[in-house]
Amino acid sequence: MSSDLSAARVRSRGRIAVEVLLAGWVHCGLFASAASSLGPMALVQPSYWIAALGSIGVGVLLALLVIELRLLVVEVVLAAIAATAFYGLLLVSAIPGAPSFAVRLTNFALVQMVPVFFLSLFLGLIGALVGTMINSSARGYEL
Amino acid sequence: MSRADRLLFGVLVIAALVVGTNVVVGAAGWGRSWHAYEEFVLELTTVEVQPDLDGVAVGIRVGNRSNVPMQVIRITTAVQANGHSVAAGRLTSGDVSLVGGSQQELVIPNDVLLPNRPAFEEQLAAGPIRWTVSGQVELHVDGLAKSTLIPYRGFIDEQ
Asked: Are A56 and A30 in contact (CB under 8 A)?
């Protein structure tokens, strides 16, 4: 009995890790695509809205997958941290290709890891809220 | 894992793959544009004081050693004489186009601002001057990057 429980716990930890890494990668990829069009006209560029809606969508998906609210919040926070780490790795990965320029631009771009974290977190939480509402109404309809 | 779980998980995996493909393609473009930036040449050639001491003309040579055409959109300059700020200027007169392997000489007029005038005259009277020119170049690389700001800094010792 106890070995079954611990096996289930290990499996769920593995699943949590996969969900967090996938969600973090999607957050990171969406922000990276939008970051290339940073500028004064950013708010009228569709890439920002696609990235924002995509990040909210990630939160919704997590909520529908996880269902339990406490674990959901933990996963959303971990996904934001994973997104920040992936974004840092993405920037640093350019250094071997063009060392002198990449280092200069990467130092500048590393500041972007701050908005990557907070946007992933807030948009993910908004998505989690929407997903939880869907979960609740689905339970109401006994779906 | 229920069927709904598998479906949701599948959606997450597909989203990760689509976004990942986009990022890999984008990062490859990033890499190419950074290589192009490494082939951009900027050299400080001359610093000449105007006879009326109202301005300083800075000569800058820009070049493109890559095979990708580039455009210099804007250059800003801040001039120091022996470490004292004396003048500032910018070149925004349209795009300076640089096809692969070409170079151009640019002269950027810098105005000496009134508060800087005493320090400027003092340094001119003191003798040989080490000119320091710093600023930013806004550069467009055809097909690779809309524009990027590149900081620079250079010295010229007056003979």
From this structure: no
